[in-house]
Structures are given as C-alpha cells and as structure tokens.
Amino acid sequence: MAGERLARILALLPTGGAVVGGTAHLCEVSAGLASVSGAGIMLMSGDVQRGSACSSDDVAALIEELQLTLGEGPCIDAHGQGRPVLEPDLAGPLRPRWPVFTPPALDAGARAVFGFPLHVGAVRVGALNLYRDRSGPLSVDQHADTLVMAGVAARALLVMQAQAEPGALAPELEVGGDFRYAVHQATGMVAVQARCSVGEALVRLRAYAFATDRLLSDIADEVVARRLRFDEDGYDPWPGSAQER
User: Fold this and answer.
1) Are 99 and 163 within one domain?
2) Are residues 165 and 69 in the same domain?
3) Are residues 196 and 144 in the same domain?
4) Domain that holds residue 11
5) Could you write out the DSSP letters of every residue in the chain?
6) Number of domains present in the structure of the chain
7) What is the pLDDT of residues 165-191, one digit of tens each?
8) 101-142: per-residue pLDDT in tens?
C-alpha cells in the first residue's frame, strides 16, 4: 500500500519526481493531494527559519511570511517537534497555541492549517505547510498522502542542495523561493549594533515588527538601508526604542 501510494505521488511530479526547474511543483502537488487551498515549504536549520522554498499562492506565501516574522505557527512546531501539527479549526481551536500568528492568518483567509516535518532519517530540513480556506480535518488518505509527499519533498530538497557549491544555495532552490536575505543581513547588523547574539538580534527584530504591526522583511529592509538602528544603550524592543533616521 505504501509503495503504491509513493508510486502514485511520484507519477504526479515532473519526470517522476526528478529535480527539474525548481520547487514550485512540490507545493502544487502537495496542495492537490490534500485537497487544500494552498501549500508552502519552509526551509529551516536548527531553530532558524531560512525562508520559503516555494508557495502555491499568495495566501500560502503570506502564511510563511507570518511564521518567519512572528516565530510561531504550524511549520515551526512541526519542524521542532518532528511530527505533524494539525489545526483543523484555526478560529475555534480546542487548544489555542499560536496567539500571535492566529489573528493575521485568519485575516489572510486561512481557516485550517497543517504542518508536516521534512526529514530524511535524523536530518531535518524544514516543514511542509498546508492551509485551507474552510475549517475541517484532513481525511485519513489525505494525511497519509501528505506524509509520503513530505518525504518525497525532503529528499528532493536534499538532492538539490547536494549539487550546490559549498556554502551556497542550490540554483534550483532559488527558483520560486523567497529566502529573505535582507532578514539575515539585518540580523547580523543588529547583533553588532546591540552587541548581542544573532539569536537575540532576531528576537529584537521580531519584537519590533510585531509591536509596529509590520512584516519582518519590511523592518529588515529598513535596517539594511540604515534607516533604522538597534543600539545597545537603553534598548527596549518596542516602538520608540529603535532609532529611526
């Protein structure tokens, strides 16, 4: 049964699942298999969100951006816990778990979200995110298909990256991806300005983005353009603490 499921999924991918022309088809097939509104793939290393490898539509892209900005959501939990994280009713969950992520995700049109870890053995590369514009759980078959699809996607991503130059991102991952390089650059700049660790710098950027009701990428652009600074003296990670110039 598992073999048949895998064969059926590989048949939906270009050239039987071979890596051709980027990652977009991975998100498109994932959304179709689960009969959801959209899908996205977030790459992560440890606790750091590297960015989006692909998204099937604008809402899926925004959901990934929100998780990057706020540091919480189904992809982040699925990656950290190493298991699927399922929320079939985002507006009325049995156990509220994303107090910051949920309101803007609902505003974006998501009513159900599902995160599946992407891993090959002990190697974790990120998470597959599904969203639906109506509430309701995945069926047994949809859940099983997505588990297999997550494995296929994880292997495809590792194959792509294995062909890259050391320290560089594979060109196939760049196609259709959104890795928010400004966020990483800004995080390093804030770490120097505030004399703190890179991890704390990212927390400070997120706090400022949340408090000013803006996306992390917008704040990062301001830092990189040197219109916004986060200095050590008297720093408070809320509006007015950073120095806008």
Assistant:
1) yes
2) yes
3) no
4) 2-174
5) -HHHHHHHHHHHSGGGG---S-SHHHHHHHHHHHT-SEEEEEEEETTEEEEEEEESSHHHHHHHHHHHHHS-SHHHHHHHHTS-EEES-SSS-SS---TTTHHHHHHHT-SEEEEEEEEETTEEEEEEEEEESS--PPPHHHHHHHHHHHHHHHHHHHHHHHTSPTTS--HHHHTT-B--HHHHHHHHHHHHHHT--HHHHHHHHHHHHHHTT--HHHHHHHHHTTSEE--STT--SSTTSSEE-
6) 2
7) 665 565 565 555 555 666 667 777 887
8) 999 999 999 999 999 999 998 888 899 999 999 999 999 999
